[in-house]
Amino acid sequence: MTTDFDATKAMFDLPEGVIYLDGNSLGPLPRGVADRVGRAITAEWGQMLITGWNKAGWMDMPARVGDRIARLIGAEPGHVVMGDTLSIKVYQALASALEMNPGRKVILSDTGNFPSDLYMADGLVRTLGQGYALRTVAPEDVLDAIDDTVAVTLITEVDYRTGRRHDMKAITARAHAMGALTVWDLAHSAGALDCDLSGAQADFAVGCTYKYLNSGPGGPAFIYVAPRHADRARPALSGWLGHAAPFAFDLDYRPGAGIERMRVGTPPILQLAALDAALDVWDHVAMADLRARSLALSDAFIAAVERACPDLTLTTPRDPAMRGSQASFRHPQGYAIMQSLIARGVIGDFRAPDILRFGFTPLFIGFDEVERAATILAEVMANRLWDRPEYHARAKVT
Amino acid sequence: MTTDFDATKAMFDLPEGVIYLDGNSLGPLPRGVADRVGRAITAEWGQMLITGWNKAGWMDMPARVGDRIARLIGAEPGHVVMGDTLSIKVYQALASALEMNPGRKVILSDTGNFPSDLYMADGLVRTLGQGYALRTVAPEDVLDAIDDTVAVTLITEVDYRTGRRHDMKAITARAHAMGALTVWDLAHSAGALDCDLSGAQADFAVGCTYKYLNSGPGGPAFIYVAPRHADRARPALSGWLGHAAPFAFDLDYRPGAGIERMRVGTPPILQLAALDAALDVWDHVAMADLRARSLALSDAFIAAVERACPDLTLTTPRDPAMRGSQASFRHPQGYAIMQSLIARGVIGDFRAPDILRFGFTPLFIGFDEVERAATILAEVMANRLWDRPEYHARAKVT
Fold this sequence. Notes:
2 copies of one chain form a homodimer.
Chain A: H1 5-9, E1 12-13, E2 19-20, E3 29-30, H2 33-48, H3 52-55, H4 61-73, E4 80-82, H5 86-100, E5 106-110, H6 115-128, E6 133-137, H7 142-145, E7 150-156, H8 168-177, E8 181-185, H9 197-200, E9 204-207, E10 222-225, H10 227-230, H11 269-279, H12 287-308, E11 313-314, E12 326-330, H13 334-343, E13 346-347, E14 349-351, E15 355-359, H14 367-382
Parallel strand pairs in A: 2-13, 5-6, 5-7, 7-8, 8-9
Antiparallel strand pairs in A: 1-3, 4-10, 9-10, 11-12, 12-15, 14-15
């Protein structure tokens, strides 16, 4: 398969006059979604009512849609399931991993991880008590920090601010050599690069779908458990839909087979329908093509910005192997600069304290947009267009 | 306000020829939902992209929609928030309650509770270890079983199978007298009866919205924390949107004010939009009217069925104060009988091992439908219409 990126771009509904470099925060609307969700509401829910759980296949959606994502992240078929939010899935994976590694009490993470991952880990170790602890080190120190006290690593493959990419294979190998398990957060990997969970021998992985997978605001998360663990990982969040026989209504919990046990409550069918439609775009995409184009787009942007904007400092690694699908620059007035850019139709985002973040999503962004965005950024910087009061007021959500 | 139930019925899209007595499993489609969700997709997500979190008010939806539900369950405004699934909210409430009652290790529940509540409690006590335990007694023994070893009770107000209603006020008072906290599951209460959390001095409450509140398959759950606890309950599921300043991206977790801390991850905006539209119906409903009509409808059905179907045994309490908004009958061939009814357009549901369950939802069910449903059930029973092979095959989901 050779990917036709003009064809994938035509599958999105993008507003006029906008260059959207924020698909790594919320992916844009794929054309098929509104119809698909509309059908789920009127033809399925409206007409089938309760029988939709069987007739419309709702009950099987978490596994069926999970399989569509499995291909994109290099997971074995039948080992990914959808549901809940990424934070919940982090908790679920960590709780299972800790129990599978009794005698060790340390979750190792890094200070570049997305804060919610750290918060969920913190909530779990406080709940567990008994000496359980979260240990965080600088991103570049992770490999060396994996020692024989670590029960499980919790690493987001691509840093949400800098775009720095961890070496999943090396970290996983080191963890296994030291007797630790791994939980990989793929928030900025799934749909962003050619992820290979199976090849890296990852133990657990979790991710969200509203970024590069374009499922819409609050789309469901996914969880992967390696086949070798899937039948022995005990779910701490042991909900009825992870039960071996949910509709037997037994009083005692018996975990379902494999990944099914990572289901918890009733799946969000409207959000799953949106995601299912959004995934149609991916049927036409080879992940190696995506990765190559993502790096080429990022390189083109970085080169143009560095030529024209000496005040912006690149914080994303230059080595392609060391980055995801974004380019980030630092500037003390990053917030105002981003506001000024957004006012000119270039939508990236700002991450405290000083990072301008631009996501490159080949499904709908091409070299034209990259060049225009860089030109507009150069104008903003050269003419200090950001230095106006209206761009300095802080929005609630940035 | 006097409720006009013809007007509320006109606000639903119901399939032709169906008498839907299963709104207690999945509520039917309110007319405003498809448009509202369509707007959230095309006008909000499609056009506003990432800025929808502010411009379309997405970020505030969990609290804003929670306030609309607060009125229906007798909660103080500002103390209900939406998100996740009911099972997750059970875990969250229990974990907080246990931590607020150190020195006690017992969660008390009953065998009539919905199994997922018991499973989640079991998952939590296993994760905690250290002697934490789930104790279950028969529903009628709950009050006496609350002793000074109980840290928290976990009771579903209305039994999902029998429709038996616990006395929330009495159980809560007894729990408090014995030094225990209470978690109330309102799955079959919210939108079904005139619930009064504040009056009963409940500590925590949780519930789902896809039953009597008609939010659609997989609609988000809610959680209530009493004002006196809201600022000191520690969230075990400490996600970023429960943080005091989510967009500061601090490495350390600091719980947000009050109920906000019970938020976890990114809220499911499409499902929340569906719920928000579904709640419009409730603007026209006085809960006392709803309760009176629910009981009158149930009474009419029970009387008609008992007259015509001597083989069916009522398992719902006759005392109105002791039941929710459903009527359940036992029969050894309950599954086949329900299949036969469904084939004739009367949709109730079956709950293992032998329960026929009928929900009475005054928003769209009137006395005509109740009478017709009872007549069809009488025909099925009198002529043993259920005794055909096609009705004896077990469906995967019943």
